Structures are given as C-alpha cells and as structure tokens.
Amino acid sequence: QKVACFVTRHRPPLLEDGRGEDMPRASQGILLALGAAGATLALVLLWPRKEAASSGGEEVTSVVPNDPPAAEPAADPGAPPAAAPAPTAAPVAEPSAAPAPPPAGELTASSGKPVLIGYGSQTGNAKSIAQSIFETCQARGMDCTLSALNDFKKWKHGLADLELAVLVVSTTGNGDAPDNCDRFRSFVKRKSHPEGMLEHLRYTVLALGDTNYDKFCAMGKFFDTRFKDLGAKPFLALGCADEATGLEDVVEPWCAALHEKLEVVLSGHLPPVLETSASRAARKAGAAKPAAATQGQGATAQGAELHLVPSKEAMILCRTRKVKIPDIPRLAQGNEAASPASAKATGVGLYEAQFSTEPQAGSGEDEAEDSEEFQVQVLSARYLTAGGASAERRVVELVVQGRPPAGGSYRVGDAVGITCENDKKDVEAVLSVVARAHAAEPSFAPDTFVGLQYSHSGKVVDLSSLGLPSRCTVRQALTSHFDLCGPLKPSLLRSLASSTSNAEERRCLEVLAGDKACFDAVVKDQSLRFAELLEMFPSCQPSLGLLMACLPPLACRYYSIASSPSAVGKDVFRVAFAVAQWKAKDVDRHGLCTNLLETSWLAPWLAANVDPARRPTLRLRAVLKPAEDFTLPRETDRPVVMIGPGTGVAPFMGFIQERRQEKLRARKASTGRHGGRGGGAAALGPLVLYFGCRHRANDWIYKDEMQDAMDVGVLDQLRLAFSRDQDHKVYVQHLMLQDQGDLFRLIHENEGYVFVCGDGTAMAKDVHEALLTILLSRPHLFPSRSAAEKYIEEMKESGRYACDIWGE
User: Fold this and answer.
1) What residues contact 432, with CB distance under 8 A and at least 6 apart?
2) In whole angstroms, what is the distance from residue 370 CA to residue 379 CA?
3) Which pLDDT does position 29 carry in this prediction?
C-alpha cells in the first residue's frame, strides 16, 4: 500500500489523453519498477476493499472482487439483473472506440480458468453481443473462446469439462433454435445425460426474443432450465431481452453485471484493478449516457430538423433506387446535443483477414461432416394467384426434388430452407469498397481465398465457425455468406465509424447510431441496404475482417412444405411463397430470396412462352427443418382445426394430402378385413380449415385442391374469409367467432388440435383472442380470463395448440 501511495504522490499529473508530462527517463524507470513491485505486493497481500490515499495527486482506489459465495442461489429468471457498475480500467476508452488491448504494465483480469462464450444467432444480433462480450474479456486477459453453439464438438474443453460458460441465444420462428444452435440443443436435450453431468459448470444465459411471438425467449429459457437439470449453477440470472421494445434496455445492464460477476467468479485468479478518480468519473458519466442520448433524440426530433436530400450523381445505387441521403455537414454540426450511443463499437479489431491463392490451412475440415445442406432440382414452378407476373400480389409454387442428408425424408408440417445470394450490384459495390481498404496489400483480389486470425492472439479462426467453407474467396463470402441486404443495426454503424476517415462523415455515423430519430429517418424507414450506406459515406472503408465480424450471416429462407411424402414421394417437396415487395418511404423494396427466385432462377418456368425442353437444369441448396409439434396428431380420431390465411395455408395442404392417404389406407385395411365388401373403415376425426385472402377472384390459392378435398370428404368443413370483397373487412377470426359453438365442441369436448400458420404480428394474436372468447362463452367452465389462458397453456404443453408464424 505504501509503495502504491508513493507512486501516486510522485508521478506527474496525467494529460487529457492519459500520457504523463515529460520527466527524466531514470525517474520513469524507477516509478515503473515501483509500480510493478506494488502490483506484485497487491496480489500477495490482497488489498482491503477500499483504501484511499491523497497527497496532491489523484485518489487511488483498490477495487477487489468479493469472494464468491459457496452456493449462490439463482435469481428469478424473469427478473432483470440488478444494475451494477461495470468493471473499470484506467483510463476509460471512448464508447465508440475499439476495445484496445491493455497497455503494457497495466493490471488486467488474467485467468487460468477458460471461459466459453457461445452464441446461437439467426440474424446476427446474438452473435454481435457475444463478440462484444468476448472482446471485453479478451482485452482483460481472460482465457476465452468465442464459438457458435453448434461447434460444440470442436471445443478444446468439451461440454462435460467446461467450468465457465456464457450463452447468448436468440429464438427464431415460434420457439425454434437458430440454425447454428439446433444441433447443440438436440444434444443437450438428450434424456440419456446423467443428472450431474454439468455439476462443475457455472454459467449464465442471455436470451433474445420478441414478445410479438408466443414463445418469448424460448431457447434461452430452455438452456437455462436444462443446464440446471444437469447440475450446473448459474452465476448470473437469466436475462431476457425483447426486440419489440429494444434489446439494449436489457442487454446493456446485463452485460455490465456479467463482467462484474465474472470477476467475482474468477476472483481467485484476478488481480485487483486500479481505478483513478478520473476513470471513476468517466465511468459514472458513461452510466448516465443513455439519458443524454434520449435527450439528444428529442432535440433531433423537435429542434434540429433532419434534412434528407437527393442522392449525388456518383451514388449509383442510391440514385437509381431513389434513396435519399442525410445532409452530412448539417447533421454532424447541428446535432451536438445528440450524444453517440453509449454502447461500444463491436467487431473492431477482432479479426484480421489474410489473402492467398491457396485456402487457409487448418480451417473448416469438418464442414462436410456437419453440413445439413443438400441439393434439390427444380421440377416445376407456377403462379398460384391470378394475373401472373403482372399481378400486384403474387404467390408462386415451387416443386423440387432431392434427398436430405443420411437418406431421410420429411413429415407434413416440416419446412425447407432455400439458400440465396445477395444482389449482384450490391456485391460489386461492397467489393470495390473493400478493395480500397486493402489497396496496400498486393495479395488482395476479389477471387483470392480468404483466411482469418484473431488480432489479439494471432490464432487462426476456423472459417466453419462463421458458416464459411474452407475454400472461400472474398467474392464468395460477400455473395453467399454475409447478409448485405438485411436490416441494418445501430451497432454496425457505430463500428463503421472507426473506419471512416472524414471527420464529418464519422460524426454523422455516430449520430445515426446513437440517435433513434435520425436512425429511423435515414436507415430504418428507407429499409437502407449496406451497399447504399457505404455510398453515402465514401470515406468509410472497412476492412474485410471488420465486415466478417459485424455483418450478420446470410440465412436461408424457410418455407412451409405444402405436400405429403406419402402422396408425392419422399424426396419431392412443394412450397408456396409470396413475392415480398413494399414501399419504404419513396423507395421500392423487395424481398431478397423471393425476388431472386421469381425474376432470375425460376424465370424459365414462370414465363409462359418458354419451351419446357429448353429449360435449364437448375439445382438449389436447401436445408430441411423438422417440425416438433406442428404435424398431424397420432390420435387420428381427434378433430383437427387448421387456421391459415394467405400462404399460411401451405402446410395444411400437406395435412390434407396426408389425411387423404390415411383414408385410403384405412379403406384398404377395412376391405381386407371384410373380404372385399368395404365399410368399417377406421374412424378419422373431423378436419376443418379456415382460409382467408383479399379477393376470391385473384388471391385464392389452392382453390381447386381445397374444393376437391371437400368433394371427396377429406375436408369436413371449409370456411373462407375474403377480406376485401365486401364493404367491411372479414378475417378468419371473425368466422371463428361465428362458429364458436361448433369450435368449442371440437376443441374442448372432443379434445381437438388447433394449428395456426401465418402472420405473427397481427393474425396469430387475433386468433388467440378469438379462442379465449370461445372458451369464455362457457362461464360455468371458464369463469375468468386467467382460467381460459391456463387451459390454452395446457393445450400448448400437450401439443394440442401449435403455431408456425412469422413477422413482416
């Protein structure tokens, strides 16, 4: 303690940038030696919790982590973590700066206990948060590993040997695991695991979800519960972040608590961290920045008006697409009150890319073994809606043939994912920017192979952990593996600011990242694409390593299978998709995959004047996604109610095909038993379909199939809602309320099954409310809303109420 105080008294005051004033080198050497001695004594003697010393210099506080409790009880999973000051280091970096490695001689959090930071991410949010956690831990000297959860077989310390784990997991669909997490979920779920398999593991989970969907944060909650079942102990309560209200409201305080808790858990290995009064003040100021950012947003929205101007002549993509750009000088200078976002930039300095004529050694060896992709050949394609390509609203049916890995098949209710590519114009635009960023590297070329290594350690990054093949060129990575057309996040803009040389443009990116009103006007409301953003800020030249750390993966697009393998063959898939298109302010936007399928890949099949013999052989890459509870029940005598407006009816066409096959099998079995006389077929429960669309004449897809199913007795009831064919709008939930007596009998008295497919932002909620109303119509059985809700929850748990829904 005395040595530390001596150093504090006799060192020169710090300048604003953290450097000391000029002093003789001999004195510097003495002070450095004394500082090292003080650090060593601190480790041996374990300083008291707080010891202040002031003698004309700055106050120095020793912050020593508390000893971890013997058995820390887990907090209520639904409760948000208590606010806690983030662990500090001196000096504190600017929020938008890259996480720099600790300076030589600085006390860091060094641990011999490895920490796994695993993520399950569908759109890139969970991965970005996990990267930020990894960078902070790495900068503090922790032995940590960043990995997609599906790569659990490659972990140096297998799951059974892990001691510390941090999981960041999103939920996709209606309670499904992300693509890079599903195999890990299946492994953890195995009933054969002994109860105490993970008793040595301390862990925590950050779950990402959306309350617009029924199973909020289902994957994170699953891992939290399952890990406890296997004996693991949480060192920080489950965090549940809601994208509907803003992930950062939970993510930022949870991450602050995480880093403090990690120090507690690793306290046997962590040295104390010196905090100066200046760094402590900066930390407190940083904690107050969210409020400042809110004030900045208000100032932008009400005071300094955001000016959007037409695109410049050189901005080819923005100009041709009618994208408006911000008045950069005005935004940079006129929004000084708008503070940049308090969260730090992520991905900056994480990876360094290398370029070679040969693929990176030691990367992606197991990709073939782990790949779930398979090839399918296009058999046919047709428009299901009237009007063909000229119709405003178009639905396309695609029929493909291919065998999933291991020779498997599919069940009704499953989905198939089609992998797509980025728009070629966007790819070329981004490639040109990346080429400028790597202009000084003679080995760079768009078609050279790319390799990655961690910037801090120099360790080679396994490309398969990023979903890349081992033989991957720069062009392939930007074409097929990273999403250049998806929604942009403020965190990406914050990271791009670090690669922007022009001060006004850099400030403008920071304002856009930190000011919600500006971000919405420029980015969100125009559905801005990544290549268009780079055009707006020409001095922004991010490296390929930064893009590979920050851009989300290009995920395949899943479509419900509209066929039954017993009817069309085990390797034939039929899907239906609506061609996505919308107006974002004055900008015409379209969905990436559906537009590519309609206008390019399937054009020879959709064009009426193309000779079938001249159509090329077209193969697509696909992924099969099995349904867990969204399939016909084994109890074939139970009623089945299907609710699927629009393309939500697709899986139910597979249900109808399967039920037709069940009737045929039952009739054959009955004929065999009764000596060819027929009759006596096994009882099949009623099959009821609710379908809706805008106009009967134009939008009724699978009309012939539905009517035929009614004619032959496969469908017992077909209820149709054409919302725009009368003065008042009629939707499927209105028909359900009209039929509440029949539906109550089918669902409650006969213990029927209910399946809902389609829009999750409105339709699914309205259907849920209709079901509640139907139950509440029998007050002697359901006297309150809570009683009805409880019954619906019981239906979900038993698999009698299942939803396959999606957002906009």
Assistant:
1) none
2) 28
3) 54
Give the angle subtended at the CA of 46 by the CAs of 44 and 49, to the nearest 5°. Answer: 165
Give me the pLDDT at residue 768, please.
95
677-707 pLDDT per residue, tens: 444 456 899 999 999 999 999 999 999 999 9
- Residue 677's CB is within 10 A of a number of other CB atoms, namely 9
Low-confidence ranges of the chain (pLDDT < 50): 1-25, 40-111, 270-304, 337, 339-342, 364-369, 677-680
Res 73: pLDDT: 38
What global pTM score does this model have?
Answer: 0.77
Two tokens, residue 743: 């539906």
Q: How far apart are CA 736 and CA 755, in angstroms?
A: 13
Q: Which of 256, 453, 482 is nearest to 363 (CA)?
A: 453
Extract the tokens encoding 682.
């096994």
Residues in the chain: 808
CA distance 62 to 305: 47
Per-residue exposure over 66-103, b if at least 16 CB sit within 10 Å of its own CB, e if not: eebeeebeeeebeebbeeebbbbbbbbbebbebbeeee
With a CB cutoff of 8 Å and minimum separation 6, the contacts of 26 are: none
Rounded distance, CA 560 to CA 625, Å? Answer: 9
Q: Please state, in angstroms and as integers, the Cα–Cα distance from residue 373 to each residue in 183, 367, 370, 419, 621, following that order.
A: 14, 11, 9, 9, 6
Is there a contact between 546 and 437 (Cβ–Cβ < 8 Å)? no
Structure tokens at 226: 């399952």
Cα separation, 167 vs 188, whole angstroms: 13
**The three-state (H, E, C) secondary structure of 231-249, written as one string:** CCEECCCCEEEECCCCCHH
- Six token digits for residue 339: 């503070």
The continuous run of DSSP H or E covering 139 comes out as: helix 125-139
Query: What's the CA gap between 115 and 202, in Å, rounded?
Result: 10
Question: Whole-angstrom Cα distance, residue 723 to residue 725?
Answer: 6
Distance CA 713, CA 716 (A): 6
Residues 6+ apart with CB under 8 A from 264: 65, 66, 67, 68, 235
Q: How far apart are CA 96 and CA 497, in angstroms?
A: 8
A 10 A CB-CB count for 65 gives 21
| Radius of gyration for the alpha carbons in the chain, expressed in angstroms and rounded | 30
**Tokens of residue 435, six digits:** 């080429």
Q: Which has the closest alpha carbon to 591: 321, 808, 382? A: 808
Q: What pLDDT score does 22 carry?
A: 45
Scan for tokens 């300076």, then name that residue.
103
CA-nearest of 340, 738, 293 to 511 is 340
> Phi and psi dihedrals of 184, rounded to 5?
-65, -40
H/E element holding 698? helix 696-699
Tell which residue, 480, 576, 591, has the closest CA to residue 529: 591
Amino acid at 653: M
Tokens linked to 483: 């999403």
Q: Is the peptide bond before 91 cis (omega within 30 degrees of 0)?
A: yes
Tokens standing for residue 792:
């619906």
How is the chain split among helix, strand and coil, in percent rounded to 5?
40, 20, 45
Helical (H) or strand (E) element with 308? strand 308-309
Q: How far apart are CA 210 and CA 172, in angstroms?
A: 9
Can you tell me the distance from the alpha carbon of 650 to that of 413, in angstroms, rounded to the nearest whole number? Answer: 9
Cα–Cα distance for residue pair 261/68, rounded to 1 Å: 9
Compute the distance between CA of residue 465 and CA of residue 580 in angstroms, rounded to an integer.
31
Contacting residues for 678 by C-beta, under 8 A, at least 6 apart:
667, 670, 671
Q: Is the dihedral of CA 359, 365, 366, 368 positive or negative?
A: positive
Helix (H, G, I), strand (E, B) or coil at 583: strand
